[in-house]
Amino acid sequence: MQQIAYPSEPDAAQAEAPAAGGAGDDEAFVSAIDAVLPQTQCGQCGYNGCLPYARALAAGQAPINRCPPGGNQGIAELARVLGREIIALDPACGAHRALHVARIDEGRCIGCTLCIQACPVDAIVGAIKQMHTVVLADCTGCDLCLPPCPMDCIEMIPVTPPREWTHKDAERARRRMQERSARLRHEQAANDARLTVKALHKLDELRTRSDLAEAEIARRRSIIEQALARVRRRRAGAAGSAGPDHCDGAGGSGS
Q: Could you tell me the residue range of the domain that residue 118 belongs to?
């Protein structure tokens, strides 16, 4: 297929910035950009998910041609929303391809759960030391499960019949990413609560340990207080950064 030639991207400083407005206007603008991104959360753009890329685009800090899953159509839609010129996909970010999904060689899977932890949309199911499998209807083709697999037993295969990623797919992927983020926050909060109760119990116990030297009591108290401080910082960070569209997955190469 003949490659269409596009003009080059203007420098970020010259890129058209969003109209001035309040915080609500800015968020609406980010949401409009995020709405045309594919929500694969693959990280090929260099950002930790689609929403961070949308924020960078809204701020005029990123070019519109860094999303291989979106391809030329995605670039055209971003150009429309942002009022920029259409340009060619940056080959450094990867090539556009039709939808692929992950497939696990279940005979070689050792049940390490690393791929489950890497999947941004909870499309892999399994348990520790148990066989894992991919829910193909939920897989975004992001490739993020490939690098952590110690057995190299995951491959990306094209769907049959071949098709492109659609806006309906993107909406489904966004919902699943949000549900995963909410689950992870809930699990972290529950774990922090357990750690806090345990740490406070240990502090109370130290007050009764007449068999320990003062220096040893002080050492143990310092360790426990540092653990409590880490929990407080984690809670404060989660409250400040984790909105409904927050992506807790790591970026990487993907579809």
A: 100-158
At a CB cut-off of 8 Å and minimum separation 6, what does 30 contact?
A: 51, 54, 55, 58
When pLDDT is cut at 50, 70 and 90, the band that residue 12 belongs to is: very low
Residues forming beta bridges with residue 154, ordered by sequence position: 104
Q: What is the reported pTM?
A: 0.74
**Alpha-carbon gap, residue 155 to 153, rounded angstroms:** 7
Pair (18, 87) in one structural domain: yes
Query: What whole-number distance in Å separates Cα of residue 43 and Cα of residue 87?
Result: 20
Looking at the fold, whether 76 and 30 belong to one and the same domain comes out as yes
**What's the whole-number average pLDDT of the chain?**
86
Q: Give the CATH number of the domain where residue 20 resides.
A: 1.10.15.40
In a domain, 35, yes or no: yes
How far apart are the C-alpha atoms of 142 and 139, rounded to whole Å? 8
Domain count, the chain: 3
Write the pLDDT tens digit of every residue in 16-38.
444 444 555 799 999 999 999 99
Alpha carbons 202 and 220: distance in angstroms, whole number = 9
Supply 69's token pair. Answer: 């899953």
| Shared-domain flag, residues 22 and 83 | yes
